[in-house]
Amino acid sequence: MAVGLTALRAGDNTLLIDCDPRGGGLDLVLGAESEDGLRWPDMQLSAGRVAASSLHMALPTRRRGSAQLTLLSGAREGEGPAPDAVAAVIDAGRRAGEVVVCDVPRQLGAAECAALDRADLTVIVIPAELRATMTAKRLAEDLAARGVPSQLVLRGPNPGGLRTDEVVGAVGIPLLPPMRPEPNLAQSLERGDFHPKPKGPLSHAATTTLTELAATPPKPHPGQGDLRAAS
Q1: Measured between alpha carbons, how far is 71 from 37 in angstroms, rounded to an integer?
Q2: Could you read off the pLDDT of 29-42 as tens digits, one per residue?
Q3: Does the pLDDT at position 165 exceed 50?
Q4: How are beta strands 99-103 and 67-72 bridged, if at all?
Q5: What is the pairing mode between strands 61-64 and 67-72?
Q6: Is 68 helix (H, G, I), strand (E, B) or coil?
Q7: DSSP one-letter code for 203
Q8: What are the extents of the domains in the chain?
Q9: C-alpha torsion sign, points 2, 159, 137, 83
Q10: Which member of 41, 123, 205, 222 has the lowest number of beta carbons within 10 Å of its beta carbon?
Q11: Strands 99-103, 228-230: parallel, antiparallel or unpaired by DSSP?
């Protein structure tokens, strides 16, 4: 979510895709749960092409100047997305030249893998805790076996004293700059008015991620040109 909002603030058209069917819906974080627009259970998509302009008209949006963020959220009821539907939506955003951001859970099913297989950059975000470190190690190994390289964002604080070098050594993937705690983050998420502070730790981490995305060679997608997607 922070990456999508930071891209919007930078003036980039952004497509934010909720690929976590048990996450409760990213629309809650934006306070958009009552807004008109389709969610995943309402989408009637299968294999094939969908126009980005159709998504812009059908889904909740946020605007900043001439740029817009389009949100395809999960819902509190109904099924999660099918793999072909995830692929069609991501490809629509890529063809339109938008920054495509997918929120993917750690349990990887077919739909989640459809997003990861199309990502130019995959980032694993964890707190500085032992169990989270071991989970990230397993996830990074699963992604590598699928041919999906990943990078790590380590979120503070580290209440148990686990050092950054210990986490990186255990997980075994490159580290993006660690993120300090974001003040009042939990409260803003609960209120549904999440907006990363422009100079706060979360915005810095999101900007670093977008910079890394811009420097990462895009995966080849025949006929789609130089398009960017992150998970």
Answers
A1: 9
A2: 888 998 999 999 99
A3: yes
A4: unpaired
A5: antiparallel
A6: strand
A7: H
A8: 2-120+197-230, 122-178
A9: negative
A10: 222
A11: parallel
pLDDT class of 223 with cuts at 50, 70, 90:
very low
Query: Which of 102, 57, 66 is CA-nearest to residue 83?
Result: 102
Cis previous bond, 157, omega within 30: yes
* Residue indicated by tokens 């964890």: 126
CA distances from 106 to 22, 137, 144, 231 (A): 11, 11, 14, 11
β-sheet with 14-18: strand ranges across: 61-64, 67-72, 14-18, 99-103, 228-230
- Structural tokens at position 2: 């922070």
Q: Contact, 76 vs 28, CB < 8 A?
A: no
Q: Which of 71, 29, 32 is nearest to 189 (CA)?
A: 29
Q: What is the percent of the chain with per-residue pLDDT over 70, rounded to a whole number?
A: 94
Q: For the chain, give me the number of helices (H) and strands (E)? A: 9, 7
Contact 143, 122 (CB under 8 A): yes
State the residue for tokens 């817009």.
Answer: 68
| Token couple for 41 | 């259970």
